[in-house]
Every structure is written in C-alpha cells, then in structure tokens.
Design brief:
It is a single chain. This protein is mainly alpha-helical. The chain has one domain: Orthogonal Bundle (434 Repressor (Amino-terminal Domain)), CATH 1.10.260. Helix content is 59%, strand content 0%. The protein is built from five helices and no strands. Helix 2 packs across helix 3. The chain is globular. The two termini are 19 Å apart.
Length: 70
C-alpha cells in the first residue's frame, strides 16, 4: 500500500484561511493555473516554490523546499 503524501501547500493555505486567488496573485498566475498546480496536475516552477516557501516561512519557520514540496 502506497503512503499518502500530504499536500502541504493546500493544507497551509487552508490553515491560514487563504483563498486560491490570494496565492495565485502572490505567484502572478491565474487562479485556474494555481488550482492545477495545487492539485499536482502541473508542477510549481522553482521560482514559485521559493516564493511560496518564503511566504509560508513567516508562519512555519522550520519549513524547507524539500519538506514543502517533496
């Protein structure tokens, strides 16, 4: 049985009470594109990963790129 990987981006967004539109604005991408990326239909770019990590680090200071995305 394969372990389920928690989608931390989605979990953190919801924990902070943010809408997908708010994070899509931070990343300067459309809401549908953000939604696909959050659902893992499309990968976040390296630049987007760094942007999200820096945003979430304010609230979750121990987070790293690896722990957030892999």
């Amino acid at each position: 049985m394969e372990a389920i990987k928690i989608n931390k981006v989605q979990a953190y967004r919801k924990a902070l009470g943010l809408k997908q539109s708010e994070l899509s604005e931070i990343l300067n991408i459309s809401v549908p594109m953000y939604s696909r990326k959050e659902r893992r239909g499309t990968a976040f770019t390296d630049k987007e990963k760094v942007t999200l990590l820096n945003y979430f680090k304010e609230y979750f200071p121990n987070e790293t790129i690896d722990s957030l995305f892999f």
